[in-house]
Sequence to fold (252 residues):
Amino acid sequence: MNIPQNRKFKCWAAACCGCGEGPSAEHIVSKCLFPEGVVHVSGFDWCKGETKSIGVNGLERQILCKTHNSALSEIDAEAKKAIGLFQRSAPPTKDDPLGNNNVDGHKLERWLLKTAINLSYRGNLHIGVGMNGSVPGLPSPYLIDVAFGKLPFGHQMGAHFLFPAKETLHQPSEIVMIPLINDGHIGGFYFELRSQAVFLNLFPGHAPPTLGTVAAKLELQQALLDAELVYRPPSIATASNSMPISMIRFQW
Fold:
């Protein structure tokens, strides 16, 4: 997959109107997730067969106008919180004995979609399957409305969490994103958000029971390919070496 290049500027949300203030420098993957300022990148045409370390600003592209970019800042913040909790749940305090482990699931889901669109924009693939008004490299009006919170995902589309039956290994600082491609369409995206695996389903009414049934060739640990997919779980348990098991609670 190619990272979109700076051709003549066009906001990917333009189809639903409301553009303003000119182009912005949108990060393909939210800058707030990389406080150290460096991203380790692999899998793109410009770094095939190797991993490159680049400054996070090297992933900037003019793909959203300033108005639409600002409108999505709240989902960047929720993704940062959620991914931090996946890595280490918030400890309890005197004022919050349960710890602030609540996550707005819909905002996290919207961030997954925004990131999938950013990565796929101006490519040669349809983003999603069976979307009205879809053309290669552009999100459909429906997906734009979902990304901006005007419509919810329906028909089993959205976030499916993976719960492997066996232990899997993760790099504590790593974020992985892999499209599932078939016949010119991206049917979904696999995300590994530090310690939590999530599948964003973009194929209406066709949520797979496991990733292995639709993407057996993905270079993932077998336990992840065989893992049960759970749609919008109300909560998940997390643990770290230094803290007891804790619950992250989702609002859907």
Q: What stands out?
A: The longest strand covers residues 185-193.
